[in-house]
């Protein structure tokens, strides 16, 4: 009996030691509010999911392998907090595993955020807020409107069957990923950022037509930001070019974004932003958008927000130049007001 007790105690201690070397975190956001809009979706008032952040949940963890080397994993999904509905692909956002080291960088395999979109986010005037930001020109010009999710490129934000490497060298961060074609379409994604009082970013992403080596979608962006006291200004340029299944160019879009954030208090930020986008292959296709916002942090995890967008879309304007989810009516002025609360856990 004593031997059995000693064996059980030893096993428990060994298991405890192994567990102590690993960490797993459950995390997520719930973001809900009201959206009132005119000349956008024919005008409506709705309980709106994801005003400034997506509603998500996930698991991430790491294990210390010694010598600074760690094994990491991340599983992430999103859902509609207004109805509780999930997605058909359970971990659509992330499902990956890899290794990281302070000196050698990070190697990741699986489904992950595109390195290009992460670099783009660094100088987007609205920091890729879930609505009224550069997120939508990026997504709509990523091939989403021509090939949809080709199996490896999910609205330009997530890439599947990918191998990525990233590293930070002082103020410079570099990242690159390649999605293996398999029977889908290869994706190349590159991102570069510089952090400091002056911030810089460059991003490039190309997606092939499924089952071919032909390039169907190309996007690149360049941006800069500058912080002076309580003010942070950002400037970003995005270019996207798409072809149809016959490899005939359908859209050639330029989007310029300008923004200024004013930190009026340690927990409050007022934002001003302007975007103008145009499809060079279509006449009268310009969309001009103005955004005014305020975000007030009640705590580190809970934020109240209000944001308003005023959009003028030319007669032939389309989604590729819109900063609004789902776009607004062409040839009309649209106004949208969204207020809500985001809670992170």
Automatic annotation (TrEMBL):
Localization recorded for this chain is:
Cell outer membrane
* The protein's name in its UniProt record: Outer membrane porin protein 32
Please list every transmembrane segment annotated in the UniProt record, as residue ranges. Answer: none
What does the subunit comment say?
Answer: Homotrimer.
Q: Quick one: signal sequence residues?
A: 1-20
Tell me the keywords, alphabetical order.
Cell outer membrane, Ion transport, Membrane, Porin, Signal, Transmembrane, Transmembrane beta strand, Transport
Q: Give every Porin domain span.
A: 9-315
InterPro entries documented for this protein? Gram-neg_bact_OMP, Gram_neg_porin_domain, Porin_dom_sf, Porin_Neis
Q: How does it sit in the membrane?
A: Multi-pass membrane protein
